[in-house]
Amino acid sequence: MVIAIDGPAGAGKSTVARAVAGELGFTYLDSGAMYRCVALAALWDGVDVDDGEALGELAERLEIDFDGPRVLLGGRDVSGEIRTPEVSGAASHVSVHPRVRAALVERQRHLIETADYVAEGRDIGTVVSPDSPLKIFLTASDEERARRRAGETGEDVKAVLEAQRQRDARDTEREHGALRAAEDAVALDTTGLGLDEVVARIVALARERGLV
Ligand code: DC
Question: Pairing relation of β-strands 70-73 and 76-77?
Answer without folding.
Answer: antiparallel
